[in-house]
């Protein structure tokens, strides 16, 4: 009998044995402690659990401090009505055909509105991960860029939606991983390779912003192409909510590509690809060969209508008011709990915990009436577990203060209040 050949994985870009073998233990612990798989009804900002659990009774009410809708626009009456009105206006939920063949005007209307908002060409997608899946292989082959295949540098902390594209891009060009925001690593590559593309988060899902201005210097010096996912700062940051990258980067041309989900602070659904300086022929390449960007599952009509309504809010002073409320809540939290992210306008704070205490701490916070998500490997590096707290404009001062009191009880380090000038501690 012929001996069958077994497969030996290379693990060049991914290691599911490690991801699942270690990470699943934490997920199982989360579920056993009632911190995963929660089903809850939403009403007036308070969620109520549907089912009972060993630790949590059915009907348990809690405030969600782990929601990415930083401005609470997902429940804004104008956004909800926008979705309903668009459905009535266009009379179809989802005209199911590739957009390169036939499309109703709905998504074009949204792209035009967002294009005016950002001052650039916008292509919409059903999700940021779908946009990334379509764009990164085209960058790797040189069809999106200057025609040359670049060295693709993926930031070590790049979101999984980008990191998962490493093996696909490696079929087109050389792929490497850099230490987090290591400018020296990137510059050394620029000196060695004719063309380099750097893939990173503009705003990290665990707090903080990319060194946009320093990267712009490398773009000017070497022609570096930077691909940002700036999903966590859209709407929550900048004039008219254009996000951190477009507020700070002095290089807004074909060397900078920004993808942002519309599902977080923007409050609706889908994603926006923001492109500066690209000709119509290149946009057609994206549309025709960007994989799921052109499949039949596009933004449905209510999502488009909600997006149009949110875009209009972004053109008014209401957006600034919501941003200010968010920043006040962030500042209040920072005055009570110490984190590495303190002092920034970024709405995410990671409260450090150990691997052995993070689940129990999360459960105790939940029992007290607040939900903050425990994060652990592979969400974060091993040994850096914590409770991820997400601030929103609609949270009250009382809610923030009560949460911080509970966090202090479960081991969070409290912030040290500043002393008067001239007083030594």
Explained architecture:
The chain is α/β, with parallel strands linked by helices and 425 residues long. Helix content is 37%, strand content 15%. It has helices at residues 16-32, 77-90, 106-118, 128-140, 160-163, 166-170, 183-192, 212-222, 244-248, 280-289, 301-314, 317-336, 358-367, 397-409, and strands at 40-43, 46-49, 61-64, 121-125, 151-155, 175-178, 196-201, 225-229, 256-261, 271-275, 348-352, 370-371, 373-375, 386-390. Strand 7, helix 8 and strand 8 (225-229) form a beta-alpha-beta unit. Helix 2 packs across helix 11, helix 3 (106-118) runs parallel beside helix 11 and helix 7 (183-192) runs parallel beside helix 8 (212-222). It is globular.
Structure keywords:
14 strands; alpha/beta; 425 residues; 14 helices
């Amino acid at each position: 009998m012929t001996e069958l050949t077994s497969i030996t994985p290379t693990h060049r870009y991914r290691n599911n044995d490690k991801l699942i073998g270690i990470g699943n233990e934490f997920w199982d612990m989360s579920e056993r402690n009632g911190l995963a798989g929660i089903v809850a009804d939403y009403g007036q900002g308070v969620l109520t659990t549907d089912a009972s659990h060993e630790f949590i009774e059915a009907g348990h009410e809690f405030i969600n401090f782990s929601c990415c809708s930083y401005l609470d626009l997902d429940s804004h009456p104008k956004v909800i009505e926008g979705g309903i009105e668009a459905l009535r206006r266009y009379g179809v939920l989802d005209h199911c055909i590739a957009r390169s063949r036939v499309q109703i005007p709905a998504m074009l209307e949204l792209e035009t509105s967002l294009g005016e908002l950002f001052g650039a060409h916008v292509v919409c997608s059903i999700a940021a991960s779908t946009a990334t899946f379509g764009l990164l292989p085209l960058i790797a082959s040189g069809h999106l860029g200057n025609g040359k295949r670049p060295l693709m540098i993926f930031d070590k902390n790049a979101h999984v939606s980008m990191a998962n594209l490493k093996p696909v891009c490696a079929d087109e060009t050389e792929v490497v991983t850099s230490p987090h925001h290591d400018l020296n690593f990137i510059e050394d590559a620029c000196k060695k390779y004719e063309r380099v593309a750097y893939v990173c988060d503009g705003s990290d899902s665990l707090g903080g912003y990319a060194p946009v201005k320093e990267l712009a210097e490398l773009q000017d010096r070497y022609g570096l192409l930077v691909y940002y996912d700036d999903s966590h700062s859209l709407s929550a940051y900048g004039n008219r909510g254009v996000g951190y990258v477009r507020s700070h980067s002095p290089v807004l041309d074909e060397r900078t590509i920004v993808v942002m989900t519309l599902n977080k602070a923007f409050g609706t659904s889908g994603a926006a690809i923001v492109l500066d300086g690209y000709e119509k022929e290149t946009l057609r390449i994206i549309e025709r060969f960007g994989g799921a960007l052109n499949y039949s599952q596009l933004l449905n009509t209510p999502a488009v209508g909600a997006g149009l309504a949110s875009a209009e809010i972004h053109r008014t002073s209401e957006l600034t008011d919501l941003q200010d409320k968010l920043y006040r809540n962030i500042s209040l939290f920072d005055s009570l709990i110490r984190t590495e992210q303190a002092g920034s306008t970024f709405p995410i704070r990671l409260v450090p915990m150990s691997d052995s205490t993070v689940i129990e701490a999360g459960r105790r916070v939940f029992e007290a009436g607040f939900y903050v998500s425990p994060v652990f490997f592979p969400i974060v590096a091993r040994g850096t577990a914590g409770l991820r707290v997400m601030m929103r404009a609609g949270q009250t001062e009382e809610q923030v203060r009560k949460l911080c009191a509970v966090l202090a009880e479960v081991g969070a380090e409290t912030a040290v209040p500043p002393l008067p000038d001239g007083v030594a501690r």
